[in-house]
Description:
homodimer; four-stranded mixed sheet; 12 helices
Amino acid sequence: xxxxxxxxxAFDAVETPSxxxxxxxxxxxxxxxxxxxQFATTRIVGPxxxxxxxxxxxxxxxxxxxxxxxxxxxxxKTFFWAGRYHRDxxxxxxxxxxxxxxxxxxxxxxxxxxxxxxxxxxxxQPDLQREVREQCTSARxxxxxxxxxxxxxxxxxLLETVARVDCLVLNDSELxxxxxxxxxxxxxxxxxxxxxxxxxxxxxxxxxxxxxRDGFFGLTAYxxxxxxxxxxxxxxxxxxxxxxxxxxxxxxxxxxxxxxxxYGTACASFNVEGFGSERLYDLARAEIxxxxxxxxxxSRF
Amino acid sequence: xxxxxxxxxAFDAVETPSxxxxxxxxxxxxxxxxxxxQFATTRIVGPxxxxxxxxxxxxxxxxxxxxxxxxxxxxxKTFFWAGRYHRDxxxxxxxxxxxxxxxxxxxxxxxxxxxxxxxxxxxxQPDLQREVREQCTSARxxxxxxxxxxxxxxxxxLLETVARVDCLVLNDSELxxxxxxxxxxxxxxxxxxxxxxxxxxxxxxxxxxxxxRDGFFGLTAYxxxxxxxxxxxxxxxxxxxxxxxxxxxxxxxxxxxxxxxxYGTACASFNVEGFGSERLYDLARAEIxxxxxxxxxxSRF
Lengths: 301, 301
């Protein structure tokens, strides 16, 4: 099945204890599609400026990502983010955020993008997420991300969007903020009442948890000792997760969703082992499968 | 097999969003033994003052905990701790700590306590932990806890003690502090080089992780929505873990250790559902088994 992702395309500048990079290909839709393209043909929808060139397109296309709906804004500059990671790599400071062309982003989907059976609404303004969702009438499984900003300033719109998706993927703290419920289990139960049949809480270095009306699935992170730069780990997780769902027909029963979480976890673990999503650029599917097998062995008792 | 635990016996005063209690039976050895006694005969070694009376002994004895080595210090007062939990129950402030009789604690083990095949060295000064460890010559599986205080002020002694145990159980942040390594996987690898063949990282609300020379096991916390008061959750975890090891002969192969982690996780989940360890006072073994079965189902994919 085909997969469409809408979200940010960016350049990131990062400082880490093991080195700095001043122009990394980043953005939620990029990290997502680099991972999801391992499993399903992925169309990426998002805006770029004049500074986004052949090198960047080449990276996406090498992974088979379809870039027809990357919208070039003449005279504009691509979204830019700069951050500094601490010695504890789970801590970071944002140094600069320039929205640039992302500020006035109005997603324009080609017929092919609208026909996707699986759709991921990356972290953008919830009105826009809803517009995209309405256009994709063939979608059989729709998931969305969001962030604390939209929970704060666009709460009502966000709830309307949440009501129209199958799966909500948020950081655990965002899920607690959205539902005003400091206990994750209660927060997830409330979120299920908002409409989605699947709630996924991303827990960073600790792993992830899935809540459905029928039950719970918890998976610890893949234990990597080689963390270089974790920007985009959550987006890689979502990409692996949604890619696996698309690969398996979009039915997304419990067994498929659980295995999709493991694929997301494996993709995230590769993401953090390099700058940006570079570790995934030339990754073989077999390497991901091997980590999923390791996760299966290391979670069984 | 019999199990001996050395550690604190305390009265706790706690404030939580759902109520306050000013005199709860607490302390690491108490939380531990209330859990471990579900699985194996447990002897508790620790000091109490004149304020520790028949009611407190009755709680321990009702669970079959052997209290012969509870040392009554005439004229003394029992260790007292007071804390306030936030709305996010994973955050707390310590309001008061009175070591009282615990300050000059010198563990005295009866022959029966020394004969235990399974030994847990609760969080006390590492010289004392080592003295106890040396006395228990029959012990086949020895685990220990510690804390940031001893890592700071008794580092060399702590390393000597760590070298003499089979299993080190620490919070993840303590493990990273002990090894001066901000990545948990690397921290665990370094800790394995210090002597123990098993390193367990407690990760609070997220679960726990076990590292051995052969591999890794990760288990998320049991998803309870009814958290009342979490003091002693880590000690209940250790009690369930060590109790299960003692029940299964102390051999502690990988399969036993994994299942023991699940039993520890289940005990911790009951602990947080009431004040102190009250939720475990009258708990049936079948209730624990049921949660372990749920954990098994919710971690499999």
